């Protein structure tokens, strides 16, 4: 395959829930050149690859899922184990530290387990944990729904944002993009903020998913 190389028997770490044994399908090394949506990448051989085990992103969380996946894999080298040929191909995708990208996406709450993959324990375990901790699509505003729930009028809006950490421990450097609160980021049209982007900081990312100020 042009632009790829086989990776026979690459090592698998065991100290992370996102590190799982590779499939027995032939594995090739490719680079992620772009991200089409929350479960589909484009690799350096010019082909689309759909992450195995993920259902189609729903409207409530599709945009942020795409941003999360782009931040996680774009420009990086990955190991691709094709499970089904087609357009796009369906494959298990791992980063070179053996992180399974499908498990990572589900564990952060930016993907759901597809029905055909219900027997894959590593995926269902990641989804159960994401539900229990209400991260990503399992928290506000989606709360596990495909569409954004309409706001209720029975309870008053909060007087302060639950993820407002106040001032940073060290002042922002001159010229550095800084938002004191997520409300500030939204007013600037910058939300959501992805890790590595100007203005992102861990203090605004209350669930530590790499995505701040989603809602």
UniProtKB/TrEMBL annotation:
Record-annotated membrane-spanning stretches: none
InterPro entries associated with the record: Excalibur_Ca-bd_domain, SNase_OB-fold_sf, Staphylococal_nuclease_OB-fold
Pfam families (alphabetical): Excalibur (PF05901), SNase (PF00565)
Compositionally biased residues, Polar residues: 15-24
Region (Disordered): 1-24, 136-179
Biased composition (Low complexity): 144-153
Residue ranges occupied by any TNase-like domain in the UniProt entry: 26-140
Residues forming coiled coils: none
Excalibur calcium-binding domain span: 178-214
Name listed for the protein in its UniProt record: Calcium-binding protein
Organism: Solihabitans fulvus
Lineage, broadest ranks: Bacteria, Bacillati, Actinomycetota, Actinomycetes, Pseudonocardiales
């Amino acid at each position: 395959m042009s632009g790829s190389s086989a990776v026979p028997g690459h090592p698998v770490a065991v100290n992370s829930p996102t590190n799982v044994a590779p499939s027995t399908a032939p594995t090739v090394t490719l680079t992620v050149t772009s991200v089409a949506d929350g479960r589909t990448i484009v690799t350096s051989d010019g082909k689309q690859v759909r992450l195995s085990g993920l259902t189609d992103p729903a409207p409530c969380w599709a945009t942020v899922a795409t941003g999360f996946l782009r931040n996680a894999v774009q420009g990086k080298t990955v190991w691709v184990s094709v499970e089904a040929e087609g357009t796009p191909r369906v494959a298990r995708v791992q980063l070179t530290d053996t992180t399974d990208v499908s498990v990572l996406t589900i564990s952060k709450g930016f993907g759901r387990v597809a029905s055909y993959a219900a027997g894959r324990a590593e995926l269902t375990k990641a989804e159960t944990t994401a539900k229990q901790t209400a991260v990503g699509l399992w928290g506000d505003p989606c709360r596990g729904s495909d569409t954004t729930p309409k706001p209720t009028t029975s309870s008053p809006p909060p007087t302060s944002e639950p993820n407002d950490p106040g001032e940073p421990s060290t002042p922002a450097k001159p010229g550095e993009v800084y938002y004191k609160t997520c409300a500030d980021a939204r007013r600037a049209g910058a939300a959501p903020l992805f890790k590595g982007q100007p203005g992102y900081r861990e203090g605004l990312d209350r669930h530590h998913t790499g995505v701040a100020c989603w809602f």
